[in-house]
């Protein structure tokens, strides 16, 4: 019953939204060019998939996402662990991270254009840097949340710093690190799509939306937005849900 509800409710929600959109398109008084029906959106999606434009744009965006998120993950986890393990690192970097963390990633885009020009490199770098703060904050909180009694128990049993980190600190902080990585990936995805419209990349999903807007191809824009949402859900379910299932959920640290 619970599984049926978990599947049926999202389907019903999307069905209601689709029906409302179709009613708005047919009777809302908007020109079909601005508010196309579901059939026109589906035709645009099929056309983009058939001529290879959608595949090329998706591959280009996925490459930038993977590279940018790798930078964000390495920076965020490394700095977050260092801040949690060493008080002087926390005192030095926490004020800087706390200051930069609330600033939207797009605010850095003009600076990155001036410093690094246009194209893939500044796009990937911007995604990596701007998304790393979320991962840093959550990793730091995770390391700080490890109970001191766990550390003292490991020391009493003769564990060294390396063993304490590997067997106590890292597993204890992993739920927070996973949350940080999950949020960091979502932030990377959002920033990347927006930045692709600004950085003059050769192709990509954001570039596809920007080009469609230029020629008032609303059906193409909406079809691309559907693909962006679907990829986001796929990344969420196929990447982090699986990792959590085989780590923190399996260890009983968080509920399934």
Question: Mind sketching the topology for me?
Answer:
Blueprint: H1 2-27, H2 38-50, H3 53-85, H4 87-100, H5 109-116, H6 120-145, H7 148-156, H8 161-195, H9 205-214, H10 218-246
Characterization of the model:
The chain has helices at residues 2-27, 38-50, 53-85, 87-100, 109-116, 120-145, 148-156, 161-195, 205-214, 218-246. The chain is mainly alpha-helical and 256 residues long. The longest helix is centred in the last third of the chain and has 35 residues, at 161-195. 31% of the residues are buried. It is 79% helix and 0% strand. The chain is built from ten helices and no strands. The protein has one domain: MetI-like fold.
Short description:
With 256 residues, the protein is mostly helical. It contains 10 helices and no strands.
Task: Please describe the biggest sheet, giving its number of strands, its sense, and whether it closes into a barrel.
Answer: none
Helix count?
10
The assigned structural class equals mainly alpha
Distance between the termini: 17 Å
The mean pLDDT is 85
Number of domains: 1
Beta strands, count: 0
The unreliable regions are none
Shape: globular
């Amino acid at each position: 019953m619970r599984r049926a509800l978990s599947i049926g409710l999202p389907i019903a929600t999307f069905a209601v939204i689709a029906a409302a959109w179709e009613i708005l398109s047919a009777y809302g008084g908007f020109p079909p060019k601005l508010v196309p029906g579901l059939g026109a959106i589906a035709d645009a999606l099929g056309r983009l998939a058939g001529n290879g434009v959608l595949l090329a744009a998706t591959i280009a965006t996925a490459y930038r996402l993977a590279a940018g998120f790798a930078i964000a993950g390495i920076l965020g986890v490394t700095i977050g662990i260092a801040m949690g393990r060493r008080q002087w690192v926390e005192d030095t970097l926490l004020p800087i991270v706390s200051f930069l963390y609330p600033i939207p990633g797009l605010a850095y885009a003009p600076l990155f254009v001036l410093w690094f020009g246009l194209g893939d490199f500044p796009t990937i770098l911007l995604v990596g840097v701007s998304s790393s703060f979320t991962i840093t904050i959550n990793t730091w909180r995770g390391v700080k949340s490890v109970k001191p009694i766990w550390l003292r128990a490991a020391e009493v049993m003769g564990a060294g710093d390396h063993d304490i980190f590997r067997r106590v600190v890292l597993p204890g902080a992993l739920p927070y690190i996973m949350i940080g990585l999950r949020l960091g990936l979502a932030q990377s995805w959002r920033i990347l799509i927006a930045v692709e419209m600004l950085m003059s990349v050769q192709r990509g999903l954001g570039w596809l939306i920007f080009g469609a807007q230029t020629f008032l191809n609303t059906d193409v824009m909406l079809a691309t937005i559907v693909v962006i949402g679907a990829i986001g859900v796929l990344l969420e379910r196929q990447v982090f849900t699986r990792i959590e299932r085989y780590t923190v959920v399996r260890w009983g640290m968080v509920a399934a």
